[in-house]
Task: inverse folding
C-alpha cells in the first residue's frame, strides 16, 4: 500500500495492517513540501488516509464473492494538522459477521464507519465517516 500512487504522492504511509483485516493504521507527516498555505495538512490528504481502508478490511474479511465499495463519505475538519497525524481504523469481526448475515439472501448492507485522525500531541484533527456498501456477487 505504501507504493500505491495516490497514497505515496500524498505522503500517506500505512504503518499497520492486521493479519485478520480488522485494523489498519496510516500516518502522514506534515512537511514543508506537502502542507497547505496555512502550514497544515491538506484536507484531501487527511481524507486519503482513510479512503480505501474500510473497503479493503471488509473485502479481506469477507473474501471472494462480495461486491464492496464506499457509497458515501464525509470529513469534518476540527483542528489544523501541523505535525504527524495518525488514522487508526478498525472493522471488528462481529461487524463483518453481521454484514455477511444481512447479505446472505442477496440483500445489500450499508454500514457507517468513523475514524478519528489525531495528531502526535493527541489533538483531534479530523473525523472521517464512510458508508460501506456490500452485496454478494451474482
Result:
Amino acid at each position: 500500500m505504501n507504493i500505491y500512487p495516490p497514497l505515496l504522492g500524498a505522503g500517506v504511509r500505512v504503518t499497520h495492517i492486521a493479519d485478520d483485516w480488522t485494523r489498519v493504521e496510516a500516518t502522514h507527516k506534515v512537511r514543508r513540501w506537502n502542507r497547505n498555505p496555512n502550514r497544515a495538512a491538506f484536507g484531501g490528504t487527511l481524507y486519503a488516509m482513510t479512503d480505501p481502508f474500510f473497503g479493503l478490511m471488509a473485502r479481506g474479511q469477507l473474501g471472494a464473492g462480495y461486491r464492496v465499495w464506499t457509497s458515501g463519505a464525509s470529513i469534518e475538519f476540527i483542528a489544523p494538522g501541523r505535525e504527524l497525524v495518525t488514522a487508526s481504523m478498525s472493522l471488528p469481526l462481529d461487524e463483518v459477521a453481521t454484514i455477511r448475515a444481512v447479505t446472505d439472501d442477496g440483500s445489500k448492507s450499508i454500514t457507517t464507519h468513523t475514524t478519528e485522525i489525531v495528531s502526535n500531541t493527541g489533538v483531534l484533527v479530523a473525523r472521517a465517516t464512510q458508508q460501506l456498501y456490500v452485496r454478494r456477487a451474482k
In short: The mean pLDDT is 94. The longest strand covers residues 124-136. Helices lie at 5-10, 43-48, 53-62, 93-103. The beta strands are 12-17, 23-29, 66-77, 84-90, 109-119, 124-136.
